[in-house]
Amino acid sequence: MRTTQLYAPTLRETPAEAEVMSHQLLLRAGMIRKAAGGVYTYLPLAWRVLRKIETIIREEMDVAGGQELSMPIIQPAELWHETGRWDIFGEEMFRLKDRHDRSFCLGPTHEEMITSLIRNEVRSYRQLPLLLYQIQNKYRDEIRPRFGLMRGREFIMKDLYSFDKDEAGLDVSYKKMYDAYTNIFTRCGLVFRPVEADGGSIGGGFTHEFTVLADSGESEIVYCSKCDYAANVEKAELKASVQENIAEELPLKLVDTPDMKTIEAVTDFMGMDSTQSIKAVAFQNEKDEVILAFVRGDHDVNDVKLQNAVGAVTLRMADEAAIKAVGGVPGFMSPIGLTKDAKVVVDLSVMEMTNAIGGANQIDKHYCNMNPKRDFTDYLVTDLRLMCEGDPCPHCGAPVKMTRGIEAGQVFKLGTKYSESLKATFLDENGREKPLVMGCYGIGVSRTMAAAIEQNNDEYGIVWPAAIAPYQVVVIPVNAKNTEQFSIAETLYQELQAAKVEVVLDDRKERAGVKFKDADLIGYPIRITVGPKSVEEDSIEIKIRRSGEVFTYGKVDYLENVLSMLRNL
C-alpha cells in the first residue's frame, strides 16, 4: 500500500471529546470516526487490525471444535419474553416494531436466539456436544457511551455457545474455551489475567473474565501475592474479620449524636475507630422494596454481591420516604427498630463485632455497645463488602493486591438457565428427556483493539503488538523528491511485498519529520528509512518501534534481518 492511496486522515491535535488514550489515538491515527454517540466508522487501518484479531479468534475457535454461523441481529421479542429477559435488560435494549406492530430488538446478545435454533434441531445426545460461534455487531443503548470503543452502542463481538448433555461435558467445553481465550489474548500480544467474575444479566454460575491489564480500565481486579487467585472486585470472596480479643458484651446504650450523620463524625465524637462502627446503606429493588445493607464502618458495600444475595434484578439508592416507611431514619440507621417490610442484609464481619457503634433509627441518636448477634433480628448474613488491597486471599490467606484492567472477554457456565425456560431438550442414552447444558463465551473484538492501544502506547502514538498491527513495515524515503532515494525505497517496497511482508511505502512529498511522526502515531512495528547514506554508502536504516533500537544493514542483507525481526516481535 502506498500512503498516497491509503485513507488514513491523521490529526495533529487531540479531539476534545476523547478521554482515554485509545480513543485519542484511534482518532488521531485516522482509524475511526464518530457517526453518533457510541457509534463509529472503522477506517481502513482499524479494519485491518480488527480482521487480524478476528482471524486469530477464528483459528482458535476452529481448533477447539467451534463451527461458525451467523444469526440475525434483529430478534423477535417473543424469545426474550420466554426467558423473562425482555424487561430485565430494560432501557439498554434497542427495541423496534415492524409494520405489523410486532416487537423486535437489536441483539445485545444471542442466548435466546441460539437456544431457539438448537431446540428445534437437536433431539439426541448423539448430536452433542456442539460449539457454535459467530462474529458480528451487537447493540446496547448505553446510558452514557464513553471512552470511544470501550463502551459504545454498537460493537463487534465474537460469541460462542456450547451445548452438552451434562455438567461433565460442560466442564470440558468450558476448559476448551478457557484455553482458547488464553491462546487468543497471548497471540494478540496482550498482558492479561483470567479472573473470577459475576455473571451479570447473562446469568448462570461459574464465570471468568479475561482482563487486559491497563491503568485506564474500568474493571478493578484483586490478585493474590502468593497463589494464583484473581477475581473481579465485584466477585472477590471475603471471609469474616474475626476479632482476636473479644471483649465482654456491654449493655446497649442510647447516646445523643446531634447532626452526626457520617461514620467519621460519630466515631470522632465517641473517640473510637471506624472499625468499631456499623455503616448502613439503603437501596430499593425493581419492586420498590427497601433493602438495607450493613457493613463495618471502614468497609464499602458491594452492590453486585448484595443484588445476588437478595435476588434483585436491579438496585438503586433508596429515597428518604421509602427509608422512613420501614422505620429507618437516614443518617441514623441500624437493623434495630425497623419494620418487617425492610430486607436487612448484614456483612459477615459485622456479625463478629462487639460493643460497636450504630444508628438508633432516631433523629440525632446512635447506639453504643451494639452486639449484632445479640441485638439484631430478622436479617440475612452474607459476604457483602468490597475487597480492599491487603485483605487476606480467600484461598491461601496471603495479602491481595489490586490493579485495573479492561474486560475483553468472558466465559460463562450457563447450565440449564436458558434451555429450561426455552424448553430446549434432548433424549439421553436411556431415552429420558433432559434440558441441554449450556455455556456462553464472548470476546469484544473492537474492545480488544482499544484495549491493545491502552496497554501499548507512548508519547508518540500507538505501539502495536506485531500480530495485530495494521501493517508490519513502513518504508520512508527521507526526500521523496530525490529520484535516487525514491528509487531505492521503491525497490525495497517491491522486495518486501514479494517476501509477503505487509508494507506501506510513504510516497508523499512531505517533510521527513511529518512522515516519521505519522509512522510513530500509527504504530508500524518496523520503520525502514532511505536517506542520503542509502545512496552514498548502500546503508539501510531499520528502527523497531517498540524498543526504539536502530540498526543499519546493506541492501543485500536488510531483508533477511527484517524478516528475522518480524518473527521475534
UniProtKB/TrEMBL annotation:
Per UniProt, subcellular location reads as: Cytoplasm
Q: Report the Gene3D superfamilies cross-referenced here.
A: Anticodon-binding domain, Bira Bifunctional Protein, Domain 2
Q: Which PROSITE patterns match?
A: AA_TRNA_LIGASE_II
Molecular-function GO term, any one: proline-tRNA ligase activity
Annotated GO CC locations: cytosol
EC number(s): the record gives: 6.1.1.15
Q: What are the UniProt keywords, alphabetically?
A: Aminoacyl-tRNA synthetase, ATP-binding, Cytoplasm, Ligase, Nucleotide-binding, Protein biosynthesis
Indicate the segments forming the Aminoacyl-transfer RNA synthetases class-II family profile domain, all copies: 38-465
Root EC class: ligase
Tell me what reaction this enzyme catalyses.
tRNA(Pro) + L-proline + ATP = L-prolyl-tRNA(Pro) + AMP + diphosphate
Which GO BP terms sit in this record? prolyl-tRNA aminoacylation
Q: Does the keyword Aminoacyl-tRNA synthetase apply?
A: yes
Which InterPro entries does the entry link to?
aa-tRNA-synt_IIb, aa-tRNA-synth_II, aa-tRNA-synth_II/BPL/LPL, Anticodon-bd, Anticodon-bd_dom_sf, Pro-tRNA-ligase_IIa, Pro-tRNA-synth_IIa_bac-type, Pro-tRNA-Synthase_IIa_type1
Q: Which SUPFAM superfamilies match?
A: Class II aaRS ABD-related, Class II aaRS and biotin synthetases, YbaK/ProRS associated domain
Q: What is its main location?
A: cytoplasm
The domain section of the record reads: Consists of three domains: the N-terminal catalytic domain, the editing domain and the C-terminal anticodon-binding domain.
UniProt subunit comment = Homodimer.
What family does the entry list? Belongs to the class-II aminoacyl-tRNA synthetase family. ProS type 1 subfamily.
- What role does this protein play? Catalyzes the attachment of proline to tRNA(Pro) in a two-step reaction: proline is first activated by ATP to form Pro-AMP and then transferred to the acceptor end of tRNA(Pro). As ProRS can inadvertently accommodate and process non-cognate amino acids such as alanine and cysteine, to avoid such errors it has two additional distinct editing activities against alanine. One activity is designated as 'pretransfer' editing and involves the tRNA(Pro)-independent hydrolysis of activated Ala-AMP.
Spell out the protein name for this chain: Proline--tRNA ligase
